[in-house]
Design brief:
By secondary structure, this protein is mainly α. It has helices spanning 2-10, 25-38, 51-60, 66-79, 83-89, 91-97, 104-122, 130-134, 141-152, 161-169, 178-188, 191-194, 197-207. It contains 13 helices and no strands. The termini are far apart. Residues 13-17 have low confidence and may be disordered.
Length: 233
């Protein structure tokens, strides 16, 4: 019994799990320089005609694909591209237009509610601050970041599943939560690349650095990547 207790005391401690070490500033700059060289003007893939329709499209895109949202909003935005016009359609009509999108009932309700608030509190205009945007129904931090970046040209980092994955795999901004990664990107991404950074990361994660089968063989960052998920050969 005493020998067993001594053995337990000598047992090595479980390894401490830590997040990966962040890449050097020079390494991060090289990553974004390559992104820029390959695609100088990256664009979001949601269709919109003005800040209001962009806001609605991003609200609808939660847990849905951009392709699916674009298909649903094509006819909707053709007849309602202002809060006033959307509100005049009513929740039932909006719901019918977006019924192919996941959570369409809740989203239709949020679209009508945010139209009401835009008209009542913001003169029918999309607000230009994060706090005001996040006060709108259905709008969270990621949605606000997208609108601020695309509609108003601010340097923000909207972290979706693609950005989260790529930022961790490439050690640009390692983090265990979306907010940690966002804050890490704010510090790590050079200002010269800030305007387009989240577009490059989203597109890279969507089409190359995929979750299950990353296409490392055609990745322009292959020689810089040391992720455990890297596929060799």
């Amino acid at each position: 019994m005493m020998q067993e207790n001594r053995a337990k005391r000598r047992a090595p401690a479980a390894p401490r799990i830590t997040k990966p070490r962040a890449r050097s500033a020079a390494g991060v700059r090289e990553i974004f320089a390559r992104f820029e060289a390959a695609n100088p003007e990256p664009k979001g893939e949601l269709d919109y005609v003005n800040p209001f329709t962009l806001l609605v499209a991003v609200v609808l895109s939660a847990q849905a694909t951009d392709v699916g949202v674009n298909k649903a909003t094509r006819k909707l935005f053709a007849i309602a591209d202002t809060p006033q016009a959307m509100l005049a359609l009513g929740e039932d009509v909006v719901r019918e237009h977006v019924r192919t999108i996941g959570l369409f009932r809740t989203k239709a309700k949020n679209v009508i509610a945010l139209c009401e608030k835009l008209i009542a509190e913001f003169g029918g205009e999309v607000p230009t601050t994060r706090e005001a945007l996040e006060s709108l129904p259905g709008v969270g931090r990621k949605t606000a970041n997208v609108v601020l970046n695309i509609a108003f040209g601010e340097i923000t980092h909207a972290v979706d599943t693609h950005v989260f994955r790529v930022a961790n795999r490439l050690r640009i901004a390692p983090g265990k939560t979306v907010l940690q990664v966002e804050m890490g990107l704010e510090k790590a991404v050079p200002a010269a690349f800030g305007r387009h950074a989240h577009h490059w990361l989203i597109l890279h994660g969507r089409y190359t650095c995929k979750a299950q089968r990353p296409e490392c063989g055609r990745c322009l960052l292959n020689d810089l990547c040391d992720s455990p998920d890297k596929r060799v050969g």
